[in-house]
Amino acid sequence: MTRTPGFLDVAAAAKTFGAATVLDGVDLAVARGEFVSLLGPSGCGKTTLLRIVAGLTMPDGGRVVLDGDDITRRPPHRRDVGVVFQNYALFPHLNVADNVGFGLKARGRKAAEIAPSIARHLDLVRMGAFADRPVRALSGGQQQRVAVARALAIEPKLMLLDEPFSALDRKLREAMQIDLKRILREVGTTAIFVTHDQDEALTMSDRIAVMHAGRIEQLGTPAEIYHRPATAFALDFVGLSTRLAGRVASAEGDRIVIETALGPIPARANFFPGSPVVVGVRPERIRLGAAGPCTVTAPLTDVAFQGARVLLHCAAPEGDRVLVEAPTLPDGAGPGTALTLSWGIEDTLVFPAEGVAP
Question: What are the C-alpha distances in Å from 227 to residues 35, 154, 293?
Answer without folding.
Answer: 20, 38, 19
